[in-house]
């Protein structure tokens, strides 16, 4: 699992970072070249508070523990 910030525009108003968006390429290609490797990209917005950071950590752990995912790319709005 790869966590990025600002790779996708989730709300239509989010600022997108081209540097973060480059993570999508390897996450798409590596599983094609190495069939035993799965890669998921989870795009998040930086939390504005300590409570937000704790909530984000919980969401990331949930994504990590999810096992097989229907989607290889997931984007979350700020909680």
What can you see in these coordinates?
The chain is of the alpha/beta class. It is built from three helices and three strands. It has helices spanning 18-21, 24-33, 50-65; strands at residues 2-5, 41-44, 73-75. Strands 1-2-3 form a three-stranded parallel sheet, with helices on one face. Helix 3 (50-65) links the parallel strand 2 and strand 3 (73-75). It is flat and about 40 Å long. The mean pLDDT is 80.
| Terminal CA distance | 20 Å
Strand content: 5-15%
Major β-sheet strand ordering? 1-2-3
Series of secondary-structure elements, N-terminal to C-terminal: EHHEHE
Q: Structural class given helices, strands, pairing?
A: alpha/beta
State the major sheet. 3 strands, parallel
- Give the low-confidence spans: none
Main attributes?
single chain, 79 residues, alpha/beta, 3 helices
Produce a short descriptive summary.
The chain has 79 residues and is of the alpha/beta class.
SSE diagram, text form:
Layout: E1 2-5, H1 18-21, H2 24-33, E2 41-44, H3 50-65, E3 73-75
Parallel strand pairs: 1-2, 2-3
């Amino acid at each position: 699992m790869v966590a990025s910030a600002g790779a996708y525009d989730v709300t239509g108003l989010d600022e997108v970072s081209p540097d973060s968006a480059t993570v999508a390429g390897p996450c798409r290609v590596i599983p094609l070249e190495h069939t035993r490797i799965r890669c998921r990209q989870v795009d998040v917005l930086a939390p504005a508070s300590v409570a937000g950071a704790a909530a984000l950590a919980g969401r990331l752990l949930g994504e990590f523990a999810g096992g097989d995912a229907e989607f290889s790319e997931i984007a979350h709005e700020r909680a």
